[in-house]
Design goal:
Number of domains: 3
Strand content: 5-15%
Largest sheet: 4 strands, antiparallel
Structural class: alpha+beta
Order of helices and strands: HHEHHHHHHEEEEEEEHHHHEEEEH
Length: 342
């Protein structure tokens, strides 16, 4: 039986790509989409559309906007979403809808939601300046935004080539976040740079992981927010500088960037235990749990005859190398008795 909710794998891939596009907005297509979204909601088109260089500038613009009237987000976005979800649920049933979501929008949800949360946090941090009242106001403005390209997970689950979602989809495919009001809409540019690791987390060691054309940027290492100046230090790290870092999370970033093996070698560390499985090392860190690792030599030689060394991080309570290697396989030390190493 054919339903309105059928979505091809390439549809999901297309929306995934749109969610992380880092290229200038197609302003003409986005503005046409905004006007269509208003019409689909039964509203008059906005009298003016104002562009902002980033969500940060978008919030500033919204706070200073005059003569725009009330927000119409519920009519433009919430109502059509609810109608399409109800229709899908009726077509597919509870179990069918759950399976459909898992195969479509659910595949995009976590990485896109994580990116949205990071943008919101960055905007609040920059604009609120520690003022509690301002922070509350800014958060409310951010929650009132339609997410444009970051609405991709929801759009991937529904037909978007016709009413009621075609206007919203056109904006999502062409621009960033936007705010709809009775007589005006504020629309944001997309980012111009986006760097992520294999897990989809913001990640860059030599510049902003996410950057917008107006200068708003987020810096991160493997998903963890870091100050911009901190990244500049990574190129000149020493064991002494790493030990001197008081922030435990930043110190972990330093160790990852510097390399645990290099740190062990250059800091004069001594092994705790050695057996036929490898060598156990321990790094004591002030104000944080120690880093304990097993150095393992690969039993299979490389093409050139050399043998590669691996470092396995294990729990701080580990006391013997075999215990650590066994833990990586989910086994107790006495149960780890490999017949043949590979």
């Amino acid at each position: 039986m054919t339903t309105r909710q059928e979505t091809r794998p390439d549809d999901v891939d297309r929306w995934r790509a749109r969610a992380v596009t880092a290229a200038p907005a197609d302003r003409r297509a986005a503005e046409a989409g905004v006007r269509l979204a208003y019409r689909r909601a039964g509203l008059a088109e906005p009298e003016r559309i104002v562009w902002a260089g980033s969500p940060r500038e978008g919030v500033r613009t919204v706070r200073e906007l005059t003569g725009a009237g009330r927000s119409v987000r519920d009519a433009v976005r919430t109502a059509p979403w609810a109608a399409e979800r109800a229709r899908a649920h009726a077509d597919l049933g509870a179990a069918g809808w759950s399976a459909h979501w898992a195969a479509t929008g659910g595949r995009l949800w976590d990485p896109v939601r994580s990116l949205v949360d990071r943008v919101r946090a960055g905007v609040v941090e920059e604009l609120a300046g520690g003022d509690a009242a301002a922070e509350t106001e800014i958060r409310l403005v951010l929650l009132d935004a339609v997410l444009g390209q970051h609405d991709a997970p929801w759009l991937a689950a529904f037909p978007t080539d016709r009413a009621p979602l075609d206007g919203l989809a056109a904006v999502s495919a062409s621009a960033g976040w936007w705010w709809p009001y009775e007589r005006a809409a504020v629309v944001c540019e997309r980012p111009v740079a986006l760097h992520r690791d294999e897990a989809g987390r913001l990640d860059r060691g030599d510049g902003p992981a996410l950057a917008f054309p107006d200068g708003f940027a987020l810096h991160a290492w493997r998903g963890m927010p870091v100050p911009a100046a901190f990244l500049g230090e990574l190129r000149a790290l020493t064991p002494e500088r790493i030990r001197a870092e008081e922030n435990a999370e930043l110190r972990r970033v330093m160790l990852e960037h510097y390399g645990y093996d290099r740190y062990l070698s250059e800091s004069g560390a001594r092994p705790l235990h050695t057996d036929e499985t490898g060598t156990l090392w321990r790094i004591e860190l002030d104000g944080d749990e120690p880093v304990v690792m097993v150095e393992v030599l690969n039993s299979t030689p490389e093409p050139d005859g050399s043998r590669r060394t691996y470092w396995l991080r294990v729990p701080p309570t580990t006391r013997e190398a075999r215990e650590g290697v066994a833990w990586t396989f989910g086994l107790a030390a006495e149960a780890y008795l490999p017949v043949r190493e590979t």
